[in-house]
Design goal:
The protein is an alpha+beta fold and 373 residues long. Helix content is 41%, strand content 18%. The chain contains 13 helices and 14 strands.
């Protein structure tokens, strides 16, 4: 696949989360809420109301349409400082909708503690919304439930799904997703797995849930693409050239293969995610997608597991929360002063973004503008 755009040294443009801000030239009023929502709703959304297309979407999201759901995902990542899954992904969404959409409504099936959503090649965020309420209902009734998202295009941060289940529904949540093959098995050089991330969320009283999201690869693909765009070298162990030799050159890794974290241990995690997200959901394996273009998301699978902690433990959530908070306090009360909980950086970024807006670099804004010409 062609490499990402060449590095560019230009000052960022600040975009407010609250009110649209006009960058130089006035071409882009707001990169997500104006351009993307109006473009998709105006040109690419199927006929009929979004509430009719996707049962389970709440009224607010139904009013905003499919583009509003995707805009939420992109904005959340950019707001939290996850640049590799925010506006950086917007051109890929646009190309997907332009070249392969509009997509049919997800097909939702259910039985006992399982919800199955076949996205028919559509965007993962829409499939998640289509099955979310049924997943929540089953987990609350049974204590645990699973939702398989089949034939989705997942192009966003995985923590978005699990955080929503924890913060809005009080559930403990895990998610696993695969993609086209970018990552080699430990000891090898050929592409075998996607970056195969997994995410986890635990609800907390009066605080945002504890959330983490990590790739099975040492570095997320989007972070390597940004390193290449900005001309930065990679840390040791991120990946290899096509001939299997290690390199710190981002472009060489993008052409070769990425490595898992922790050697054989990371490879075991990547294998587990591949089996859960692809085989268990009935979606394509990473190796079956290796020849797909990298300029837009490929069709893959996701497995989400939701647990109602009160049901499983037989105890009140208040007691469970006290025990969890005591553990968190023990972690943070370290004599080195260097410990933190997973997700704290994102929460700091979230607060700063709400106060100051978001800095977006000029080359990225130009790429986004180009998609709407």
């Amino acid at each position: 696949p062609p490499p990402p755009p060449a590095p560019a040294e230009e000052a960022p443009v600040r975009v407010s989360l609250e009110t649209p801000a006009e960058p130089p030239g006035g071409a882009l009023q707001h990169p997500v809420e104006t351009c993307f929502v109006e473009w998709v709703n105006g040109e690419a959304e199927p006929e009929g109301g979004p509430g009719d297309q996707h049962p389970g979407v709440d009224e607010e999201r139904a009013e905003r349409g499919e583009a509003g759901i995707i805009a939420d995902v992109i904005t959340a990542a950019e707001r939290d400082g996850c640049a590799s899954h925010g506006l950086f992904r917007l051109p890929g969404y646009c190309r997907t909708i332009r070249e392969d959409g509009p997509f049919p409504a997800p097909v939702v099936e259910e039985e006992r503690g399982v919800v199955r959503v076949d996205a028919k090649g559509g965007i993962a965020a829409l499939a998640f919304e289509a099955g979310r309420q049924k997943l929540v209902s089953k987990s609350e009734s049974n204590g645990i439930a699973a939702c398989s998202l089949r034939n989705i295009r997942h192009f966003s941060a995985l923590w978005f799904e699990v955080e929503k289940l924890a913060s809005e529904h009080g559930l403990v949540a895990l998610a696993f997703v695969n993609s086209k093959a970018f990552v080699s098995h430990a000891g090898g050089s050929k592409r075998t797995y996607g970056t195969n991330p997994m995410a986890f969320a635990f609800p907390r009283y009066g605080k945002p849930p504890l959330v983490w999201d990590q790739a099975s690869s040492l570095m997320a693909r989007g972070e390597i693409q940004i390193a290449y765009r900005d001309g930065h070298p990679l840390p040791d162990g991120v990946g290899v050239r096509e001939d299997g030799t290690p390199t710190l050159d981002a472009q060489e890794v993008l052409r070769g293969a990425q490595s898992t974290f922790g050697g054989h241990k990371g490879t075991a995690i990547a294998l587990m995610v591949e089996l859960l997200a692809a085989v268990v959901t009935g979606s394509p394996l990473a190796v079956e997608l290796v020849d797909e273009p990298e300029t837009k998301p490929t069709v893959n699978g996701e497995l989400i597991i939701a647990l109602k902690p009160e049901q499983i433990s037989g105890q009140e959530m208040a007691l469970l929360s006290l025990r969890a908070e005591s553990l968190f306090e023990h972690i943070l009360d370290d004599p080195t002063g260097g410990t933190r909980l997973p997700g704290e950086r994102r929460l700091r970024n979230r607060k700063l973004a709400a106060e100051n807006g978001i800095d977006v670099c000029e080359p990225l804004l130009r790429d986004i503008e180009e998609e709407f010409r």
